[in-house]
Automatic annotation (TrEMBL):
Record's keyword terms, sorted: RNA-binding
Region: Disordered, residue numbers: 1-47
Entry keyword RNA-binding: yes
GO molecular function, one term: RNA binding
Taxonomic lineage: Eukaryota, Metazoa, Ecdysozoa, Arthropoda, Crustacea
SUPFAM superfamilies cross-referenced by the UniProt entry: RNA-binding domain, RBD
Residue span, RRM domain: 59-114
Name of the protein in question: RRM domain-containing protein
Organism expressing this protein natively: Portunus trituberculatus
Length: 240
C-alpha cells in the first residue's frame, strides 16, 4: 500500500480551520486563539502515540474539481456512514479542501487508507484527520440524508461550462417541473438559498451562493434522461 504524505498536510489542516472560519468551521469565534488540531498519520497515531475516537473527520486537500457532492458521497459511503461533507475552494481555482465527517473514527480511518486509490485524488492530493468538534454546522454542508433520496438519477461524467455566478438551467424540450429541478440541483451542488433559485421561462435561474458553488456549477451533470438539458451562463446578469 502506498504511503500518504503524513505531515506535509498538517499545514493544510491549519489553513482549513483559519480560511473557512467565516463559513462556520470554528464554533467559538470569540474564544482565545488555540493551537491547530493535531494531525493524525495513516498508522493511526497522533503526537501522543494514539488516535482518539474524536478523529472522525477526514480532510482531503486538492480533491478532483470535477466531482459534485453526490459523487463524493457515492465514492466514500463504501467505507462507512457519511454524516456531512464540506468542500471549500480557495480563491485561486482549483485548489480546494474537503472535510468528510463519518459516524465513527474507525470509518474515517478506513476511508483514509483507501482514498489514494480512488479517482477523486487531484494534483497535490493529501489527507489528514480532524476532530469533528472543531467544525460547526453550516448551510454550506452537504448532508447526505437530506439529498440522497430526493432523486434516483445517476450522475455521469461532468462537463466544462463557464464559471460566472448566474446560470440558467434549461429544461429538455422546453418544459419541466420546477420542484423536481430544484431538488436535483440541490442534490448536486448542495443547499440553495430560497432567493437564489427562481422559475425562468423555459428553465431555472440560479445564483451561486459562494465560490465553491460557482465552481460546482461549472461541472453540473446533465444526464440524458434528466429534465435539464443544458446549463448556460446568463447572457447579461453576470456583466451588469
Amino acid at each position: 500500500m502506498g504511503k500518504h504524505k503524513k505531515h506535509s498536510g498538517s499545514r493544510e489542516v491549519a489553513n482549513l480551520a483559519h480560511e473557512t472560519s467565516s463559513s462556520g468551521l470554528n464554533k467559538e469565534e470569540d474564544s482565545p486563539p488555540q493551537e491547530p488540531p493535531t494531525a493524525v498519520s495513516c498508522s493511526g497515531s497522533s503526537s501522543e502515540g494514539r488516535i482518539s475516537a474524536a478523529y472522525d473527520t477526514l480532510v482531503m486537500v486538492n480533491v478532483n474539481p470535477s466531482f459534485s457532492y453526490h459523487v463524493l458521497h457515492s465514492l466514500l459511503k463504501a467505507y462507512g456512514t457519511v454524516v456531512r461533507i464540506r468542500l471549500v475552494y480557495d480563491k485561486d481555482f482549483p485548489s480546494n479542501r474537503c472535510c468528510v465527517t463519518f459516524m465513527s473514527c474507525d470509518e474515517a480511518r478506513l476511508a483514509y487508507e483507501h482514498v489514494a486509490y480512488l479517482p477523486l485524488a487531484g494534483h497535490g492530493f493529501k489527507t489528514e484527520f480532524l476532530q469533528s468538534h472543531n467544525i460547526s454546522d453550516s448551510d454550506m454542508d452537504y448532508i447526505p440524508n437530506v439529498f440522497e433520496n430526493s432523486l434516483e438519477n445517476s450522475v455521469p461524467e461532468v462537463r466544462q461550462i463557464p464559471s460566472p455566478r448566474w446560470f440558467v438551467a434549461y429544461y429538455r424540450n422546453g418544459h419541466g417541473n420546477f420542484i423536481h429541478a430544484s431538488r436535483y440541483l440541490a442534490k448536486v451542488i448542495g443547499n440553495i438559498p430560497e432567493g437564489n433559485i427562481k422559475k425562468y421561462g423555459k428553465g431555472v435561474l440560479m445564483r451561486a451562493k459562494d465560490i465553491t458553488q460557482a465552481r460546482m456549477l461549472q461541472h453540473l451533470p446533465c444526464p440524458p434522461d434528466n429534465m435539464i438539458e443544458t446549463v448556460k451562463a446568463h447572457p447579461t446578469f453576470n456583466y451588469s
